[in-house]
Write a structure and sequence with these properties.
Number of helices: 9
Low-confidence stretches: none
Helix content: 25-40%
CATH class: Mainly Beta
Strand order of the largest sheet: 1-6-3-8-2-9
Distance between the termini: 58 Å
Mean pLDDT: 90
Number of domains: 1
CATH superfamily: q2cbj1_9rhob like domain
Number of strands: 9
Length: 331
């Protein structure tokens, strides 16, 4: 028989945060994680990925100046400077829909990523918004925002992430799914580092028209943002920003001296469509039936590898993205 466990306590502070989320579409939970302790294993894996990318992309002369072990930021900066950017796909615990059949690099399926997706500290933040039954949606990405000075002139997406709503990358089947984004700051994300920028209260407008663009991704047409009040959301490493799938947001350019690192994660109720039905999500927490939770990293990894093999043989007929580049607002 299932045993129901105790839900997150609804304190006065939490009630204030929930009210702010309803009103503004976003809320910050500061210092959820201790970066040195909670991100250490993830950063070790990221460092190994950076080492591999350096071996693949850098010249012998550039490799001769490769930083010593234990300095992830220095390695990412050296890689960005020499290569003109960093391919995010080897750091991603997911597959991007536009490259699902053509990706030449596997996603990152390490245990530290899985452990963070279901970390109790993060799920305690998510639960008041999603409820006691929490599904980890497979729309989840690592963001490595490189300092602007290293980027190619035509790298529009790397410079300033365009305005968009997260609902825009879901298929229509998930239009009624109440999903939230948990944006985890792996490093400090101040204004100069390329922090998020948001339009407070814009979530109340619902899903707006978006335009597809090969160089900058799906984005809101320029005219839609003309009358919106906007603000940056600087946060320290270890903080989590929770926001609505309809909140209009983007990211500032990185004008700093480090690679801004974050995780962009989505959570919802297990019974609702994810909008990426061809990718494997999992039950991260179930208060009513804890035995239904996926706790085995090896099984999580197996599901992704099986999915990748299946999609390589039979790519999805459509990514589910609904936007028409010929729409009048996209001209």
């Amino acid at each position: 028989m299932a045993v129901e466990t105790v839900p997150v306590e609804r304190t006065e502070e939490l009630e204030e945060k929930l009210a702010h989320f309803e009103r503004e579409g976003w809320v910050i939970f500061e210092d959820v994680f201790d970066p040195e302790r909670d991100f250490a294993a993830l950063f070790e894996d990221f460092e190994r990925i950076a080492d591999r990318l350096a071996d693949e992309e850098l010249t012998p002369e550039q490799l001769a100046e490769w930083p010593t072990d234990g300095d992830l930021q220095a390695k990412l900066m050296h890689l960005a400077e020499c290569a003109g950017g960093i391919d995010p796909s080897p750091f991603d615990p997911s597959i991007r829909p536009t490259t699902v059949a053509t990706a030449d690099r596997d996603p990152y399926l390490g245990k530290p990523a899985f452990d963070l997706l279901r970390h109790p500290k993060l799920l305690d933040v998510v639960e008041p918004f999603v409820g006691p039954e929490i599904y980890s949606c497979p729309i989840q990405h690592a963001r490595l925002k490189v300092p602007e000075r290293f980027l190619a002139p035509d790298d529009a997406l790397g410079r300033s992430t365009p305005w968009h709503q997260d609902h825009a990358v879901q298929s229509r089947e998930a239009d009624d799914t109440e999903m939230i984004t948990a944006w985890v700051a792996l490093s400090d994300a101040m204004a100069d580092d390329g922090c998020l920028k948001i339009a407070p209260g814009s979530h109340r407008q619902g899903l707006a028209q978006h335009c597809p663009n090969p160089s900058s991704g799906v984005h809101l047409p320029d005219g839609i943002m003309n009358n919106e009040r906007t603000q940056p959301l600087p946060v320290r490493a270890g903080s989590v920003i929770v926001f609505s799938r309809h909140l209009m947001h983007g990211a500032m350019p990185n004008l700093g001296n480090g690679v801004r690192m974050s995780l962009d994660l989505r959570y919802q109720h297990p019974d609702a469509p994810s909008g990426r039905g061809y990718l494997p999500g999992f039950i991260a927490r179930s208060r009513s039936n804890p035995s239904s939770e996926l706790r085995d990293h090896r099984e999580w990894r197996r599901r992704w590898l099986e999915t990748m093999d299946r999609l390589a043989a039979n790519p999805p007929a459509s990514t589910g993205l609904r936007w028409d580049i010929n729409h009048p607002l996209c001209a």
